[in-house]
Every structure is written in C-alpha cells, then in structure tokens.
Amino acid sequence: MADDTRHTDLPDEEVAGSRTTRREILTKAGVGSLLIVYGGALPRTAAASVPKYRGRELAGTLRIIQWSHFVPAYDKWFDDIYIKRWGQANDTEVTVDHINQADIPARAAAEVAAQSGHDIFFFLSPPAAYEDQVLNHADIVQEVTKKRGKMKTVALKSTYNPRTKKYFAFSDNYVPDPANYRTDLWGETGLRPTTWDNVRKAAPKLRAMGNPIGIGMSNEIDSNMVLMSMMACFGSFIQNKEQRVVLRSKETVDVLRFARELYRTGMSNEIFAWTAASNNQAMLAGRLSLAMNAISITRSAELSNPELASKIELLPIPRGPNGRLGLEHVMGAYVIWKFARNKAMAKKFLVDLETKYIGAFENSKFYNFPSWPASVPNIARRLERDTAKPAGKYKVLGEIADKYTLNPGWPGNTNAAIDEIFNKFLIPQMFAEVAQGKRTPEEAARVYDRTFRVIFQRWRNLKKI
Amino acid sequence: MPLRKRDKLLTYLVVGPFAIVLAFPFYWMLQTSLKSELDLYNTENNPFGWGEGSPTLDNYRFLFSDTQYAQWLVNTVLVGLAVVAITLLVSLPAGYALARLSGRWGQSLGVGLFLVYLVPPTLLFLPLSRVIAEAGLQDRLASLILVYPGFTIPFATWLLMGFFKSIPRELEDAALVDGASRLRSLVWIVFPISLPGILTVVIFTFSLCVNEFIYAIAFITNSDSKVVSTGIYTELIRGDVFYWGALMASTLIPAIPLALLYNTFLDRFIAGFTGGAFR
User: Fold this and answer.
1) What distance lies between CA B102 and its chain's CA centroid?
2) Is the pLDDT score of B55 beyond 50?
3) How far is it between the farthest Cα atoms of chain B?
4) Whole-model pTM?
5) Residue of B40, B52, B241 to mutate, interface with A, max A Cβ within 10 Å
6) Average pLDDT of A203-218?
C-alpha cells in the first residue's frame, strides 16, 4: 500500500517542484529504461514473473521462522517443495529461516523488542505470554474448522485464552509423547513400564544391570513434559479448571516422594544436568532402559543402529494412581505478530498448511500430528504401514494422540502463568530439589505453590487470566 | 645459556600435563569428526578406540555437501576482516592519544573504555535488535560489522594504550626534532615498534568475531548470511538430535588456522599482551 501511495504522489511532486522540459523527460526515460533492461534494476522476482504484483514486491513476500526439525527430510520438504509450490500458487515469495529450538525464546524476545522480524513465528510450546504482541488467530481457526471439522481439544486448550477470548496462537500440530523402553532389558525384570509402580519396582534391578531409568530433572523441555505428565498421573496439578493454583496437595507430595524414591533407587545423577538431547544420546548409547521422549530416539536409532532400534518399543505414559494422563511432547504453535508486514498472506499460508497436512505428517515421519485430525485421513492405517521393526511399532502413537495427550496446565487452559512456569523450568527444579534432598516433598509443594500463586496473580493483574 | 638436562626435564614435567589437558579437546574433536554415527555411541570405543565404520570422512562430506558450511566460513572471514579493519582504524589513534596526549585523564579514560567492554551482550542484544531493525540491517552481515566493533574497539584501545606507553617517548621526540610531523612519527616510528601489539589486536579481534554468538543469532536468521558459530548451531542440532561428528568437524576446521596463527605469532602475542604491563 505504501508503494502505491508513493507512485500516485509522484506526478504531483514533479508538477509542483520543477519545470521539466519534454527533452529532459525523454532523456531520463531513455536512460532509465536502459538501466532497467540492462542494469538489472528490475526486482529479481518480478523479472522471473513471480510475483506478478509489479512494483508491490512487499505485498507478495512472506517471512517464516521455525525450528530446525529433528527430521531433516521435513525441512527439505517444507523449504524446497511445499513453500515453493505454495508461493507459486499465491504469487508470493516465501522465505523460511531455521533456528535451534533452544533459541526460540531469545529470538522471539529480540523480534518483539525490535517490533520487526518475521511474519510467522513458530513456537514449540504455547506462547501465551506474547498474547499482546500477536493477532487474534480466531479467523484462521474458524476457516480451518470450516474445512476440516473440529480442532483437537489439546490444541484448543493450548492456544485459546478464555479470559480475553483470544486465540494467541495457531496450532498446526502437536507431538504425542510415548515411553521408549528397551524390551530386552525389561524382559529380564519380568515387567513392562505400563504403570509407574512397575517402573519403581524394576528400577533398582535395571540400574544394577547398568541401565538406569532416564527421567530428566533439569532445565529442559523433556524434563518439563515428563514430570508434568507424571504429576497428572498421580492427580497433582498446577492449576484447576478455573485456573486457580492447586499445587499444594497430598497428590503433589505423593508424586514428589515417588520421584525421589525412583531417583534414589533407579536413576543416576546425570539427570540433573541433562539437555533435551541427553536422553536421546544415552538411549542410543545403550545406557538407558527407559526414557520418555517423542519418536526422535527411535527414528535416529533406525538410521544409525537398526539392531538397537528394534529393541526399543513405544508405550503410552505409565498409569499412575490417577490414571494415565500424558502431555504433548511438543505443541507446534505459529503466531502472526502484530507488526507482521504481510498479515493476509500469513493467515492464508497457515490455513492452507493445516488443511493439507498429509505432507507434513508423512515427512515428519509421524512426529507432527495434525491439530485438526481430519486434515490427515486414515492416520491409523498410515501408522501401521511404517516399515520400522517390530511391525506396527508406531501404531501406538494414534492411541496416545487420541487418549493420553493433554495440554500444559490441564485441566485448565494453557495460559501466560503456565507459560512462565514452563519457560522458567520451575517444575523440574521442584523435583530436583526434592530428589537431591534439598527440600522435603511437603516443603517443596508449599514453597512452589506460593511461587506459582505469585506468578498467577501477576498475570491476573494484567488481565490475561 | 643452555638449560641443563635436569632443568629441561623439570620444564617438561610441568608443561607436559598442561599441554595434554589443553590439546585433549582438539584430539577429541578430531576423533569424533572421524567416527561413524554407530561408533560414536559405542561407549567402549570412547575416547580412544575406533569401531565399526570408523575412521570415516562422512562427517566432512556431509558438512560441505548437505549444509552451507562453506558459505558460513566465507561470511565469518568477511565479518572478521571488516571488524579487524574498523577496530585498527579507530583503536590505533585512540590508544595512542590516550597514552600520549591526554595526560592524567588518559589512564582514567582508558579504564572507562575497558569497562564498556565488560557490559555483557546478553544485556545489549535486545535494545540493539531495535537499532539494527531501524537501520534496516536485519539478516545482513553489515549488522555484525556494525555491532562487533562495539566490544572490540574498547578492548583494543585499552590494550594498545598500554603498549604505546611502553615505547620510549624519546624515540618520537627525536623524530619530531628531526622535523617529522606527529603523524609521520606515528606511522614510521611508533607503529612499526608496536607491531606485536597490533598483531595481538588483529588476532584477538578476529577470534572474538569467530566466537561471538548472541548478536549473530539475534540479528541473522537466513541460512545464506549466517556465520560459523550460528550456522552449525542451527543446522547441525536439529531438535534434540545432535550431529556430533559434523559438529566437531565444523569446529575443528576454523580452529586449525586460528591455532596456527596464534602459534606462529606466539612471542609477539605475549609481548603484545604484556607490553606496558609494568608502566
């Protein structure tokens, strides 16, 4: 639009500012034409006929930033095939920049500080704290819902703020979080990690065999997810449905006591210094008997060590006293910044991406599950068809996605306070302090309950909860 | 006077363990870069053994064929050279002025300048993001060339100031008496004597540019314009999967010329850092 205005203003300026002769106009026009034709002054994209919006290149440019997907094939498909086709179909030059997952918060903070950056920004957890900086994504949600039916509850509760009635993000995918366990090692214990009690019973023997349980208690995403899932299985929650802090409970004390025992009898102290990659690496090195992670462990093993891969089986989260309640491993959440330059195209891009999600699902090797299940027909059959050993290994992902995948902050919605607790890794810190004997379970539940109340109150004061 | 055998032995006994400890990361990088993925995770073969599929050049092949590593290397060198040039251009006269012309204020100003160097980039990258955006330099190497001198110039000026102080003033006075201008005496007398200090600034500034991370990750996101420190970090760590072999290969490659550079000019480098230390 700005360019259009400039063009329409130009003739007036010439009339008001100077008296140009016809000879001068012809000379300038001739030189200008030569420059354009032979000097490469035409925009590169316009010269290539895409986009067609001559002189309005910005209107046809879309900038996206997202993580470097753990499956390289996904990025290849997305960068080299999908966006190129979409760009051609929509007369838009799309660029995708990739970023390490650990740097997403810093990069987002930098873009917000600069009020400049990408049109579409991808987060790996619901970015509720940025609600004021993003558009309401409701129209995108409505458009996709119109085409693909109902959105998954986990995606809805992760991206919608009932207080402000705003969709602060658009979730294209979520990632089921299975238990990865070594069948050969667990076979010697005569148990399977189907319940947390089984994990507790088998842990000492497995550690004695040199293959401890691998549940992180560190400042990283996997620790966050597995510990919040474990809490839910024991009936311990950060907040209730009405978004009131309910951490201080008998169930929280129970789960902290359980985790302390599990650490003392069946884990190693490495878990306090883990990064998101540590459980992958320990599992690939054959050292762990159990890790809670998405399918990056098994997919990596299939490439580098197929024999080991065939010994790793996937299960839903172990059942606890409160049942089997798991969290998503990753919540893919795109946002369109308020300062995005091409909001209309950004919205269209997200709608199109979600409504035709088969490519994303297949190329992510079943890592990205669609937030609108109807976007990928016959998910169960696709999972069954995978050639990994043992046959049907990934079938369980469908079950986990349907039954055992909740949002962070469940039973309430994911909100800015949960986002802050998540990004400050307060849950892993609480567990680590108890496991290391720095606090008793009762003291930890009390102290962190108070901390969480302060965080919730702050966001409540800002009218975000 | 040559050292006696016993003294030599003692020297090696003291220096030897240090050398082993300092060289071990390079050995580790080299070995990991030559290992196959399968062998890498075989704990029995770490850190000294070789297993199935190793040694292999696959990681190097992957680096140059499947990533834009060569481009990142070029970008790193370009930024490094530009920043070195800007730093020398500013800090040479500044260091000299502070050492010679500012009297008692020189020392205080020098310390003040050095304090600027101590402000951490983690504090500065957010406001600077705004500056870079306003200047329209996002995703351009120019953003790094603009920002890096912010931390290289204070350090270089402080270092050179100390070095210039160690040069006898009489040398310049003699040149001035012989009719040379101050600029001429600077160029023909002071700078040649200051070569160790200047070399130190060059090497140190270039190393700082190669190592810098926060600004590079905050200002540049497109693959074509990345430098080594951020390129390998974003492209060789994919989610929770690390490409250790390629990562080690990618860090070893720029480390070798830098190590050679340091080694070649070691004496001058030490002279540069210690020049003026007792003045």
Assistant:
1) 29
2) yes
3) 74
4) 0.79
5) B241
6) 97
